[in-house]
Amino acid sequence: MKPTLTSLRSDAVQAEIFFRQAEHVEKLPYVHGFPKNSCELVSAFLAVAIADKYRDSPVNVAKAYSRASNEWHFWIEIGDLLLDATAHQFTEYKHPLV
């Protein structure tokens, strides 16, 4: 199965619902403030689920560093598509980015 923008948007919504449920995040480190400061762990967990769902597509966790803020950010690349499940921790985004 190959991902589409529509299927990845649905995956992002499902991930957000999951990571906002207290019974899940209480057991996971660094996710209690989702989406803030949880991009590395959320991206890692979501990458495993996405790779299982879209077995015909390469799935990678990508990261970037900002020297200005001395911060890292993580997201998922699925083939030539991108899924940032925590993009809405930044003021310029209201939802996860696909």
Offer a quick outline of the entry:
The chain has 98 residues and is of the alpha+beta class. Helices cover 35% and strands 19% of the residues. A 3-stranded antiparallel sheet has the order 1-2-3.
Tell me about this structure.
The chain has 98 residues and is α+β, with helices and mostly antiparallel strands. Helices cover 35% and strands 19% of the residues. The longest helix is centred in the first third of the chain and has 15 residues, at 5-19. The mean pLDDT is 87.
**Principal-axis shape:** globular
One letter per element, helices H and strands E, the order comes to: HHHEEE
How many whole angstroms does the radius of gyration measure? 13 Å
- Strands of the widest sheet, in order across it, are 1-2-3
Features:
98 residues, alpha+beta, 3-stranded antiparallel beta sheet, 3 strands
